[in-house]
Hints:
Layout (H helix, E strand, L loop, with lengths): L1 H34 L3 E10 L4 E12 L3 E3 L1 H11 L2 H17 L6 E5 L2 H5 L3 H12 L6 E6 H5 L2 H13 L3 E7 L5 H7 L4 E4 L1 H5 L5 H16 L3 E4 L5 H9 L4 E3 L13 H4 L6
Parallel strand pairs: 2-4, 4-5, 5-6, 6-7, 7-8, 8-9
Antiparallel strand pairs: 1-2, 1-9, 2-3
Helix pairs in contact: 1-2, 3-5, 5-7
Amino acid sequence: AKxxxxxEIRFFEAEMDRMLHDRRALQADLALSVSRNELxxxxxxxxxxxxxxxxxEALLRxxxxxxxxxxxxxxxxxxxxxGLINEIGEWVLREACREAASWRKPLQIAINLSPLQLxxxxxxxxxxxxxxxxxxxxDRLVLEITEGALMDDYxxxxxxxxxxxxxxxRIAMDDFGTGYSSLSYLQSFPFDKIKIxxxxxxxxxxxxxxxxxxxxxxxxxxNLDLITVAEGVETPEQLTILRNDxxxxxxxxxxxxxxxxxxxxxxxxxxTGK
Length: 274
Ligand code: C2E
Ligand code: CA
Ligand code: CA
Ligand code: CA
């Protein structure tokens, strides 16, 4: 049995080595793709509860020649590990703002922030200069940030987000309800919107508990003067419940999937060809 045990340990060590090796290989491929400017942004519409589209969320896409499509939930943590996320995040900010500035309709553009970007010394001036360079009105930009992202260095994050907000940029708390300290965050951070996580929305029409949580979050949002957004809305039944409960905005496959902006050219008023 002892020999068998040692064999298992060796097996696990080999397995760990392989996983580490795979991760490093993926990180190397990502770095190469970033340097070749091969990442892409897809855009998903965000609408008022009435259905009127008021903006888009930019979502990263990495389509690797050999690996195929690698989901952001896989490669963003890797980029955070190597620090490459700063370069990627800056590119997302620049690209999304440049794109939005070219639209004839003054719709909002939401981007996702990694916590590491807030630690970049010059994040506030970066946002400021990107807005100026593109002549984009600050209130068209929405920064989406998860509460987990704020946990690391609380007071520093508060101060940076307040300064960004002072530029006129809007701030949304992403994935609301999935973290631990949502309620205290709502008090300290200058949020304009809360996005209710899609896990609650997907169970909305099937599970009384999810429905109760969503209703409570919507009431909380209204009382705190925050815009409430439901994520991952897929069915008309979900939409009806959200409308009855007073949700302000929705996003999800029911309204539109994340796609290249060309697919939404008519909505944003985009002239064809870049
Ligand atoms: P997120 O910010 O919560 O984005 C919403 C995710 O839900 C997206 O997944 C979107 O494609 C998906 N989704 C939207 N509507 C529906 C729906 O009706 N049903 C279902 N089942 N899913 C829906 P995606 O694009 O795979 O992105 C995953 C996560 O990766 C994002 O979650 C965000 O945390 C992160 N991410 C994406 N782009 C960026 C980026 O530019 N920077 C950073 N830091 N993170 C990003
Ligand atoms: Ca988001
Ligand atoms: Ca989310
Ligand atoms: Ca998420």
